[in-house]
Amino acid sequence: MSAAPDTAPLCAPPDREPRPPRTAFPPLSCDTHAHIFEARFPYANERIYTPPDSNLGDYKKLLRTLGCERAVLVQPSVYGADNAAMLDALKRAGPGFRAVAVTSPDISESEIKALHAAGVRGLRFNVVDVRANKNQVPADMLRGVAKRIAPYGWHIELLVNLDEAGDFSALFGSLGVPVVLGHLGYPKGGAATWTGTRAFADLLRLLGGGQCWIKLTGPYRITTEADLPYGDTDEPARQLVAVRPDRMIWGTDWPHVMKKKPMRNDGDMADLLERWVPDAGLRERILVDNPAVLYGFESGEKIS
To answer: Does 253 participate in catalysis according to the annotation?
Structure first.
């Protein structure tokens, strides 16, 4: 990250009055990608944005409106490796929540055990918002991390622009733990040309092997369109789903920090899933069954 706190731009807040999706989500649906921001927890001295206060109460309101009974909190970059805000929210949230943390690569076994008991099921590494070696995947470091977290059934989540990440498929396929990739692979070149790239072909092959998972999130981060309906995201989403529907998960990306396009209602953005995945049975797999496997939700476990 490169911006000092006094220059990090203040992000617009999400729509505080979300509407339900056009087609109701099935019971035990899971939002696998959201962030909690509370200014009472100090932000990192270096960050590229300043988020709006978006607390657990705000988020639970969104979940109730969308019909999500499970959720996954993901540690955002503005807190660095200080997971205090996320862990506080996780403790107060009650059942039906899991989390993905950010830690030092040399995390100890005792730290892993403590985070696991709190509900953490993976570690996130951001190679996009960095000062140097942007989109360079640290292979040796990830191998070491994977070895330590594998006994706990954890995964590695990467924020990376795959079209700038070089030969990523061999590494990801050999780590021995699942690798979760956000925003349909987060192509820097945009969604419109994503399916025609070598990186997308490599991603499809990696996905076919089963160790890679895709988050159907953040279409506004990869579209080349100025506003909804983000039609250029349809083809990559549909191709990814067609290869391994059992490796797809969905998330809101709430509260949509650093969104450079007009802020839209979460109900409108949730409706995109129906367009990407017209089959109701596959949508249920993506919303319910797949996250239950990846994050270890127990039968019947849901938000109270």
So the answer is: yes
